[in-house]
Amino acid sequence: MHDLELLRAGVCVAGLDGRVDEPELAVIATLVERVGVGRASLKAMIELSCSDKNLYKSQLRLAQPSPSAALEFLVKVAKADGHLTEDERVIITHFGDKMRLTPAEVDTIIDAP
After folding, report:
1. CA angle 87, 84, 109 (to 5 degrees)
2. 111 has a pLDDT exceeding 90
3. pTM of the predicted model as reported, rounded to 2 decimal places
4. Per residue in 2-27, pLDDT tens?
5. Which residues of 76-104 are buried (b: 16+ CB within 10 A; e: fewer)?
6. Contact, 81 vs 24, CB < 8 A?
7. What pLDDT score does 90 carry?
8. Between the CA of residue 39 and those of 29, 44, 107, what are the distances in Å?
9. Maximum alpha-carbon separation in the chain
10. Spatial separation of the C-alpha atoms in residues 89 and 110, rounded to whole Å
């Protein structure tokens, strides 16, 4: 269940700019396979994430077993297309706060190479 929550958040981050690119799909592919999400369900998640800019507010409802690792995954998704936008940074910071990471921890994870 935690992986599904993280997958949904990852798709949300990936679709923030209105599209999900191949590099972003490659990052989330391991979770897609592990969770067992079918093609139609993934497509629906992607379409929703691309059209609903407030979707992130309802994501990550379950506590993650490793908040730092979860946030690192979301940052990896956001950076997969070659850059981290300000909107992506805001949403990732929101997720970090939701997972009870300190602002300093969030910044360190976001700014890691």
Report:
1. 100
2. yes
3. 0.89
4. 899 999 999 999 999 999 999 999 99
5. ebbbbbeebeeebbebbbebbebbebeee
6. yes
7. 95
8. 11, 9, 34
9. 38
10. 8
